[in-house]
Amino acid sequence: MNTTQPISESDLSLARETGFSECAIALRRALTTTPSGWLLAVWFCWDRVPTHSIVLWLGIAAAIWAGSLAVLQHMIGTGSKLARHRRQLRWIAGLDGFAWGLLTWFLMGYDPVLDAVLMALLCGVASINAQVYGTYVVAYYGQIGILLAVSVLGLLQTGSQSALDYVAGLSVFTALTVYYTRAISKRLIEGIRFQHANASLAAQLRTALQKVELDAATDALTGQWNRRALDDVLKQQVQQHAISGKTFSILMLDIDFFKSINDEFGHLVGDDVLRAFAQQLRAFLRTDDVCARFGGEEFVVVLPDTPLGTAMEIGERIRRGIAQTPLLTKPKVQATVSIGVATMEQGQSITELFAAADAAVYLAKNAGRNQVRSHVPMPVQIDAMQS
Ligand SMILES: Nc1nc2c(ncn2[C@@H]2O[C@H](COP(=O)(O)OP(=O)(O)OP(=O)(O)O)[C@@H](O)[C@H]2O)c(=O)[nH]1
Questions:
Q1: Distance, CA 361 to ligand 1 centroid (Å)?
Q2: Secondary structure letter of residue 325 according to DSSP
Q3: Is the ipTM of this complex over 0.85?
Q4: Residue limits of the GGDEF domain (predicted)?
Q5: How many A from CA of 254 to the centre of ligand 1?
Q6: Could you read off the pLDDT of 66-99 as tens digits, one per residue?
Q7: Strand, coil or helix: what is 41?
Q8: Cα–Cα distances in Å, from 140 out to 79, 177, 182, 198, 225?
Q9: Helices 112-132 & 137-158, crossing angle to 10 degrees?
Q10: Which pairing describes strands 337-343 and 372-374: parallel, antiparallel, or unpaired?
């Protein structure tokens, strides 16, 4: 891991927040195993320490434990506010350290062997908690400080010969655990920070990839799908047609006399006309219909689940709408469109479908333009529908 890279303040605070949440969850897990530590202490002390001392210590420890667990449960339950709960967590850590520190007051000074065993138990608690508080080390410093202070006072009040040795041993041990926990915690926070940085980088890459994919499928001038996207849509439609038997139709639309628009108003206005045409066209379509610029002043519309008759009606609606509304008002540009309609037949290829639509456009142009024609003769002539 490259530790020379500077950690930005926002990344660092996000990592610390995550570290705090992880610590709260680890602490809850640790607290649920705490009673097994008490059992160990009670087992060692039984018959060696007066019962009332054991009961008193257990009572204090259990009360602190139950309160801590309840507060922690509440904190984790309201997870989104975890960052606001730092002070509570420090209190829990401190009180836990206090309860374990009290062990020296109530259970030590009765038997040298027992004292050594209990001392080892306290060192065990300090080292287990070094892991629990790894991602929120400030609370650990507080806990160890209180545990040490209470234990030292407890040991001194026992008046036992070995008390000073125990004080020295516990002090050295807790100082070492604090020292190493600090370094480990720094690494853990750094690791979390890298996780966040990687996740945000991955999200940025996903967004960039989606944009590239969209750009690759979109016609830059009109914002409609381009020919490549159209090919994909048609392949899907052909697959669905083969599976479900549902037919689909395409409209091929060719703006009439577009060259003269370019000649009269210039290419830039010609571009505006293409954009306006695409917009008007989209307004006639359903959300499932796919509109693509086929090239130049030609567009293709894919009408899923649409038989020829319905496709002819939709084509006619578009033709009439375009003829009635100017595409541009300044300068005023009015245009018409010739539309060829083709429907997917069983066993037909996409190339054959396009050829049929193209042939239908040719028929419409030959019939004087501003017409809708199909690749097969319709039982009801579309001319009769035209107003
Ligand atoms: N402004 C502009 N013009 C384009 C674009 N793509 C193609 N054209 C022009 O569209 C015109 C198409 O002309 P033609 O194929 O002769 O067809 P038309 O004038 O529409 O005549 P008919 O289709 O027979 O009614 C050409 O002048 C092309 O230069 C474009 O992206 N922008």
A1: 15
A2: S
A3: yes
A4: 246-377
A5: 9
A6: 999 999 999 888 876 776 788 999 999 999 999 9
A7: helix
A8: 21, 10, 10, 29, 59
A9: 170
A10: parallel
